[in-house]
Amino acid sequence: MSDPDLEPVGPRPSVRITYCTQCRWLLRASWLAGELLTTFSTDLGDVVLRPGTGGVFTVEIDGELVWDRKADGGFPELAPLKRLVRDRAAPGRSLGHTDRHRPAGEGGGA
Fold it and tell me: From residue 37, how far is each of 44, 45, 48, 86, 90 by CA, in Å?
């Protein structure tokens, strides 16, 4: 039996990870997708892997670009990406140790 207080209300966000097939980044994209699905199992509507070319590696949530490898200087680290997804998919939700161990300069508590 499920707890109605834990059920998502309204449409659940969609995450799309676009990765470069020429660069063989499918494994990286699928690992990130699996991590997001494990963490946000009931908060996300879907996680879509979209093949691309030309060195692309982007993450979008409901069509909003939240990470671009070229613009952001590399691939996303898992903890900051989880926080970006959480802030849009499940605001206020604790990510446990991910929230407690923020690198210097990434904001957070005192």
Answer: 7, 10, 11, 12, 13
CATH classification of the domain holding 47: 3.40.30.10
* CA 75 – CA 35 distance, rounded (Å): 15
* pLDDT tens column, 43-72: 999 999 999 999 999 999 999 999 999 999
Whether the CA torsion 81, 83, 84, 89 is positive or negative: it is positive
Q: What CA–CA distance (Å, rounded) separates 68 from 62?
A: 15
Confirm whether 54 is domain-assigned. yes
Domains identified in the chain, total number:
1
Q: Which domain holds residue 69?
A: 14-80
The length of the chain, given as a count of residues: 110
